[in-house]
Amino acid sequence: MSGTPKRILILGGGFAGIYVARRLEKILRPEEATIQLVNQENYWVYQPMLPEVISGSIGLTDIVSPIRHLCPRTQLIMREVENIDLARKVVTVSPGFRPRQLELPYDYLVIALGGVTNFYGMPGMIEHGKPFRTLADALALRNHLIQVLEEADVETDTDLRRKLLTFVVAGGGFSGVELIAELNDFVHRVKTNYPRLRNEAVRCVLVHPKEHILPEMDAKLALFAEKILTKRGVEILANDRVTAATSEKAVLKSGREIPCKTLASTVPSALPAVLQKLDCTKDKGRLVASSSLELAGFEGQVWAVGDCAAVSTVAGNPVPPTAQHATRAAELAADNIVAAMRGGQARGFEFEGLGKLASLGHFSAIAEIMGVRVSGFPAWVLWRTIYLMKMPGMNRKVRIGLDWLVALLFPPDLVQIKATRESGITRQHFDAGEAVFNQGDLGDNVYIIEKGQCEVLRGTEHVADLGAGDYFGEMAVLGNVSRNATVRAVTATDVLLIPRGDFHQLKTSVPAFGAVFEDLARRRAETNHQPSEPS
Ligand SMILES: Cc1cc2nc3c(=O)[nH]c(=O)nc-3n(C[C@H](O)[C@H](O)[C@H](O)COP(=O)(O)OP(=O)(O)OC[C@H]3O[C@@H](n4cnc5c(N)ncnc54)[C@H](O)[C@@H]3O)c2cc1C
After folding, report:
1. Average pLDDT, the chain
2. Confidence grade of residue 525 (pLDDT, cut at 50, 70, 90)
């Protein structure tokens, strides 16, 4: 081996990336190689426990570990991977405080960027669906649940209260089932804190495209899970899928609509954008790698591991996207990198899985371990023991153990953590017939139509049509009065919302922006004895 240390670059700090780094740190001497790892966060998330963050039975920061503690010899680069140039063997990452991109050359590359929730082709899902994959997703969903309960407690409109108390989860795989179980428990338990909600019905719905939930699990155990969830009041809608959403409802493939203000989704999964554009062989949206985990066409240079890789075991079985497979594949990839460096022989991936576990919350779970099926309380104890043992670091183990103890002794916390100012320009999607706002509503936003058509109604009288590029709603915001008309979507419509605060800020900082809207408001006010535009 030459005197210059080789440069090993790992992309992604999830199960796969972290286990590659840890293994390499163990095997390689510092003078043999430098190890760099790029991840957009400086922590690693223990995703199997993410659903418990929703109910608060595990503290938010207790399921994450600082990457610097887990892999002390690896240089962490907390940036976003923006481009991978396989020909030049260079990875480009996003700028930091200084607005300059950073280029990272490598000798050996590990791609372990996992997957992302992809709502492409599902109208309204980007705007109104809540993905559930990251710590930020879990925090956002928990905050949202508390928000809708607070709102439902003061809401007098029965229809709106019912929507606020309806919770839909799309996808009946492991994460969807664990999520609906925790969400259902949490909402029922904290509801007792809201005097006007104690006797109100809560509706939790799990939408699943197949006949039965948890298709990867033994059929008897999946049926047990269905029974438990149904007994706890979860409605399971089988053979259907969520295809679209608006701020008022979830729309299913069957044509069924569920009026709701909460729609969380654990599916579908896709490659992160930087891998979608990567020029290499892909299969069903994943990077094709050999059983020795080498990227097809880049053997000996690039390894693909974890959820982003399409790999088959030596026996020819496809490797499922789970943590237990990602960690084992990661260790093998590290061994094979060392073999490539030292001139050894690469090995193939042989691990076929030890078993499957799914928590159903509330002291119940199902488990299938080495052919043995367990359900109910014993499976729940098994689930907790196994996952606690797998959590790296005594510090986190103790914290989680204490969290579980506290959760057994005390009711769930319902503090809403507002980490950011809730503001900013957003988008909304409306189906034909849905109201953007109603006459008499408060002027809280200014709207710009991006796509679609709306009509303006005063009472039942049709007074104007609005189309792409039209903006409306400024009069009520500028005059601090309520809406003088209803605006309703005539076709499926996408609008941009500028909240009142941001609108005023923009108006003050950019006089030309303010002038456009003030002029428009003046012209609309001049015809105000018979105004045709909504305020
Ligand atoms: C809610 C939930 C529950 C689960 N429960 C279980 C379970 O009980 N058992 C089980 O075996 N599996 C479970 N899984 C699946 C398991 O978590 C995944 O299989 C595993 O995380 C895959 O590891 P990975 O390293 O490939 O991807 P990830 O863990 O997703 O890691 C990818 C990393 O790459 C980073 N990244 C992505 N794009 C970029 C970029 N452009 N720049 C920089 N960094 C980037 C991400 O931030 C992330 O840190 C669950 C998954 C979820 C979402």
Report:
1. 93
2. confident
Would you place residue 437 in the very low, low, confident or very high pLDDT band (cuts 50, 70, 90)?
Answer: very high
Span from the CA of 310 to the centroid of ligand 1 (angstroms): 15
User: What does each C-alpha distance from 30 to 12, 33, 64 come to in angstroms?
Assistant: 21, 6, 27
SS (H, E, C) 188-199: HHHHHHCCCCCC
- Give the nearest ligand 1 atom to 79 CA: 43
Asked if omega into 511 is within 30° of 0 (cis), the reply is no
Residue 529, pLDDT > 90, answer: no
Q: What is the pLDDT of residues 463-501, one digit of tens each?
A: 899 999 999 998 888 888 889 899 999 999 999 999 988
- Cα separation, 109 vs 302, in Å, equals 5
339 by Cβ neighbours in 10 Å (0-12 / 13-18 / 19+) ranks as middle
Say how many Å lie between the CA of residue 269 and the centre of ligand 1.
Answer: 11
> Tokens at residue 189, please?
């338990």
Residue 531 pLDDT class (50, 70, 90 cuts):
very low
CA of 457 from ligand 1 middle (Å) equals 48
128, 292, 472, 483, 492 from 468: Cα distances, Å: 21, 52, 11, 21, 12
Q: Are 46 and 63 in contact (CB under 8 A)?
A: yes
Would you state the pLDDT for residue 370? 86
| Cα–Cα distance list, 253 to 6, 118, 179, 265, 341 (Å) | 52, 17, 22, 15, 52
- How far is ligand 1, taken at its centre, from the CA of residue 454, in Å? 41
Q: What is the mean pLDDT of residues 123-145?
A: 94
Q: Which atom of ligand 1 is nearest to the CA of 115?
A: 30
- Within 6 A (CB) of ligand 1 lie 12-17, 38-41, 47-48, 50-51, 80-81, 112-114, 132-133, 174-175, 272, 274, 306-308, 321-324, 326
Q: Report the separation in Å between the CA atom of 30 and the middle of ligand 1, taken as the mean of its atom positions.
A: 28
Most informative mutation of 43, 109, 111, 113 for ligand 1 (most atoms within 8 A of CB): 113
In percent, the amount of the chain with pLDDT more than 70 equals: 97
Full DSSP string of 428-475: EEE-TT-EEE-TT-B--EEEEEEES-EEEEETTEEEEEE-TT-EE-HH
Gap between the Cα atoms of 286 and 276, Å rounded: 9
Q: Which atom of ligand 1 is nearest to the CA of 41?
A: 47
- Cα 271 to middle of ligand 1, angstroms: 11
Q: What percent of the chain has pLDDT over 90?
A: 79
pLDDT, mean of residues 368-388: 94
Prediction pTM value: 0.89
Nearest CA to ligand 1 atom 41: 81
Give yes or no for residue 533 having a pLDDT over 80: no
SS (H, E, C) 256-272: CEEECCEEEECCCEECC
Instruction: Give the mean model confidence (pLDDT) for residues 170-174.
Output: 94
Please name the residue whose Cα sits nearest to atom 30 of ligand 1: 114
